[in-house]
Design goal:
- The complex is a heterodimer of chains A (254) and B (513).
- Chain A has helices at 18-23, 26-37, 53-56, 61-75, 86-117, 122-129, 149-153, 160-166, 189-192, 194-210, 221-233, 243-247, and strands spanning 11-14, 41-43, 81-83, 119-121, 142-145, 172-174, 215-218, 239-242.
- Chain A is α/β, with parallel strands linked by helices.
- Chain A has two domains: 4-129, Glutathione S-transferase Yfyf (Class Pi), Chain A, domain 2, CATH 1.20.1050; 142-247, Rossmann fold (3-Layer(aba) Sandwich).
- The radius of gyration of chain A is 18 Å and the shape is globular.
- In chain B, strands 1-10-7-4-2-3 form a six-stranded parallel sheet, sandwiched between helices.
- In chain B, 49% of the residues are buried.
- Chains A and B meet through helix 1, helix 2, helix 3, helix 4 and helix 7 of A and helix 2, helix 16, helix 19, helix 20 and helix 21 of B.
Chain lengths: 254, 513
């Protein structure tokens, strides 16, 4: 654990991710506010676009390269790159190097690998780099946490999001039954296998509803979009919220 | 399901009186519909879903408990991976070493390039004995090459003796799981199949048979007893071939395998070339990995090891048909070859949320689930619709990667196979139907290659969403027309926000630097 004090004024590049930029701006905004509150200096390299996994995971390697090269251009000069998405961060760390070596050779591959290794999910960055689990947040509500598959199995953030969540003042974290099972989002899986995706999302939504939580929390907004889409259709009254938006809230703050 | 099956089987009895063994469903697996179409049928079968949910949940729990008992589980997995990787790297050497030792011990080795050649060899070997029936140890590769039907066509009856395979065979059905082929059946269905079918093919089920598992097992035992005592020929697969000694190894739970391996005079084993391990000591790793991963047991009840012929004891003619059937092609793919490490434990099926809901038949293959989705396109190629759809039959959740005892990176291989399907699609062969997907992806790729493109596209979409929302007075999107209905038929989608993050940044932090 690195002492907080030595990390004050740390320069952090925000990797907003394309889905958050366009559809869920409240999450990268909360990331900026949270990191600033924790003493970091946040920059947003405006060249950034997307991790490219929508292409990679659909089998379009060549088409993913634009995103890979763009990521390198946007973030290479930074020591800490932080994003509010286990899935996008996981894709950068797990897939960019393979794509780059295949397409552009080892010189570019080495550079891409180096940038990928400096990329963190927000929960990892706070716990591992800043050495903090209590970020001073306040959220007096009952929540349940869905550990998104890519955050756990690709980015491998472990229980860091839960450590952060449980340290929030006023919060009640309720166990989610079958929490480790996929919600059925899976990027283009939800379009290519819509029936299966719905069956999985339906089961996940039922498990979420069974907890009695007011909020469903995750570190990936697209999983939340999928599950809350079903919850909303069934008027379950459970609101989706990204982990970082809870962490950004303080008592008396917004 | 069960009524459909028995109706179908009755019709088939009338039409094909000449058959010796129960007819499986009509048609070739390779002509199965695309996974996403087959899934619709599976999802509508609540009985099967309940059976699968119950069975996979139980077996997942058992596996997790026995795996947690071992402090060195991760080291065992690494050892399993490394041994199998080594076998792949030196396949020709180990095959030759095995051949030499197996032959020295009195076995007769036959090489088969593909399913047709393997079946022809087995048929010839059975004919040489003068017999017209045999008993079978459960074996995946004989399912893969559709050996039972090839034998049936040659007038030879092959009787399954594994309980679940017997249920499948008598039920005019296909296996839906690697380890538990009748996992899609519950005991009420099994009872009906036994009562209806056993009498047609041998000793009938006892009158008044109920659906107590012990009574069903007893009925199967009685039904099989005659066949075991009568059989002069048996076939088996093998879980492992030991290059160093020329031995074959079969692990099983019921003892039917032991009967087949010891009673008949002639034993014909049909085994894929990837089943090799270098040394006898290597079994120490796999005999821990396999039972804990597959049945959730510390040790399987029966482990049979045989090395050639022992005079006066057991089969006096020992044959082995070593099958390639696409394996060397898979071995030639530096990434895809990891799938050949598979020891057929089924842990990836049991953990898979897609398999749990789809069942095995939707995969149109004897290898279902995550491993089937990466193995079939390699072994069979991607010429068929079902094989092209299989790499996409996964949400890439990665649960399978964590339980695989030989650490096959299954989701990476799924993506790799997707890439191969896409490359084939781009090469534009006439047998692949045209879709707009490559063009759409190309357009999206252009958007993501430059932030200015993304800003324009985002602005356009957002304005469209906001204007539409204001016009219609709605705060979310409900049902939408196809293809968006794939999403919105079951889910609401929120309106896009009025401001992107980028705009917020420019307005609130833009004066930095």
């Amino acid at each position: 654990m690195t002492a907080t004090i030595t990390r004050k004024g740390l320069k952090v590049a925000l990797f907003a991710t394309c889905a958050n930029d366009l559809m869920f701006p409240q999450s990268p905004i909360a990331t900026v506010e949270l990191l600033e509150r924790l003493g970091c200096r946040v920059e947003f390299p405006e060249e950034q676009t997307c991790c490219g996994q929508i292409f990679t995971n659909t089998g379009y390697y060549d088409e993913a390269m634009g995103s890979v090269k763009n990521y390198l251009k946007a973030f290479e000069k930074y020591e800490f790159i932080v994003g509010p998405s286990g899935s996008c961060v996981g894709s950068v760390r797990h897939q960019h190097e393979m794509l780059a070596r295949r397409d552009a050779g080892d010189a570019i591959g080495d550079r891409v690998a180096a940038v990928a290794a400096r990329t963190y999910d927000i929960s990892e960055f706070i716990v591992d780099v800043l050495g903090i689990t209590d970020v001073g947040a306040y959220f007096p509500h009952r929540v349940t946490y869905h550990p998104s598959c890519h955050s756990v199995r690709v980015a491998k953030v472990g229980d860091k999001p839960l450590q952060l969540l449980k340290a929030v003042r006023g919060i009640t974290v309720l166990d989610l039954p079958n929490s480790e099972q996929c919600c059925g989002m899976g990027g283009t899986f939800s379009l290519k296998n819509p029936d299966m995706s719905m069956a999985m999302a339906g089961d996940k939504a039922r498990n979420v509803a069974s907890t009695g939580a007011e909020y469903l929390v995750a570190g990936d907004n697209l999983c939340l979009l999928n599950i809350s889409g079903v919850l909303n259709r069934t008027r379950a009254g459970i609101k989706p919220i990204h982990l970082v938006e809870i962490l950004a809230r303080t008592e008396g703050g917004n | 399901m069960s009524t459909d099956v028995s109706r179908g089987s009755r019709a088939r009895h009338d039409a094909e009186p000449a058959r010796r063994t129960p007819a499986p469903p009509a048609g070739d697996l390779i002509d199965s519909p695309r996974f996403q179409e087959a899934v619709k049928v599976a999802l509508a079968n609540q009985q099967q879903r309940a059976n699968l949910r119950h069975a996979t949940t139980t077996i997942r729990g058992k596996r997790a408990r026995v795996v947690a008992e071992l402090d060195n589980w991760q080291e065992l997995r690494q050892a399993g991976e490394q041994i199998k990787t080594r076998v792949g790297r030196h396949m020709p050497d180990y095959l030759l070493q095995f051949e030499e030792n197996f032959t020295k011990a009195g076995g007769v080795l036959h090489w088969a390039r593909d399913a047709e050649e393997a079946n022809r060899i087995v048929i010839d070997l059975v004919r040489q004995t003068g017999e017209d029936e045999l008993v079978k140890v459960k074996s995946m590769v004989t399912q893969e090459i559709d050996m039972n039907e090839a034998l049936e066509a040659a007038g030879i009856a092959a009787w399954e003796t594994d309980l679940a395979e017997l249920i499948v065979q008598l039920g005019h059905d296909r296996p839906s799981h690697i380890l538990v082929p009748a996992i899609h059946r519950n005991r009420a269905e099994v009872r009906e199949i036994f009562l209806e079918e056993m009498g047609r093919y041998g000793t009938p089920a006892p009158e008044g048979l109920d659906d107590e598992p012990a009574h069903l097992a007893a009925a199967a035992r009685t039904h099989l007893r005659n066949k075991f005592m009568r059989a002069k020929v048996s076939t088996s697969g093998a879980n492992f071939l030991v290059a160093e000694t020329g031995s074959l190894v079969v692990v099983e739970s019921e003892g039917n395998g032991r009967m087949c391996l010891t009673l008949p005079q002639t034993l014909i084993s049909v085994v894929g070339i990837e089943k090799l391990v270098p040394t006898f000591d290597d079994l120490e790793v796999f005999l821990q990995l396999l039972p804990r991963s597959s049945t959730g047991e510390r040790m399987n009840p029966y482990t049979s090891v045989w090395t050639g012929v022992t005079p006066g004891d057991g089969p006096q003619a020992i044959h082995l048909v070593l099958v390639d059937n696409g394996r060397t092609k898979a071995l030639a793919d530096p990434i895809g070859r990891a799938a050949l490490r598979c020891i057929r434990c089924s842990a990836c099926l049991n953990i898979c949320p897609v398999y749990e809901r789809a069942g095995g038949h939707a995969y149109g293959s004897v290898y279902p689930g995550p491993i089937g989705a990466i193995l079939n396109p390699q072994l069979r190629g991607t010429a068929s619709e079902v094989d092209r759809s299989l790499p996409f039959a996964s949400s890439l959740c990665g649960a399978c990667n964590e339980v695989c005892p030989v650490r096959i990176p299954i989701s990476d291989l799924l993506v790799h196979e997707r890439h191969k399907v896409v490359e084939a699609k781009k090469a534009d062969p006439p047998h692949i139907p045209h879709t707009a997907e490559p063009q759409l992806i190309k357009a999206a790729s252009w958007v993501m290659a430059d932030h200015k493109h993304l800003e324009w596209a985002g602005l356009g979409t957002m304005m469209g969403s906001v204007v539409l929302g204001k016009m219609l007075g709605i705060e979310k999107f409900g049902a939408m027309p196809a293809p968006l209905s794939r999403w919105t038929s079951a889910r609401d989608v929120p309106m896009l926000p009025e401001q992107t993050f980028r705009r917020w940044w420019k307005q609130n932090r833009g004066d930095q630097k």
